[in-house]
Amino acid sequence: MAETETTPDGSSRPTRKVREGLVDSTSMNKTVVVRVVDRVRHARYGKTVQRTKRLYVHDEENTARVGDRVRVQETRPLSKLKRWRLVEIVERAR
Fold this sequence. Notes:
This protein is mainly beta.
């Protein structure tokens, strides 16, 4: 069963996904590419496997830099590829 959040009018809707990853690219305006690593168990062999996704994330103030660890949240489609928005910068790159 999916978790839900309550809206101000009392109805409920599914909670939005939150992911954490590293900024891979900042070459676009108001957009960053974030690399998210998921660890999943292999269905047959049981070995833990790393799977990487590249998410296009909306960054309104262009604050994120390459190498920053960021938290992103799912949102409505903002463009052809952008489906996530920047919530916070967890850790700055050194």
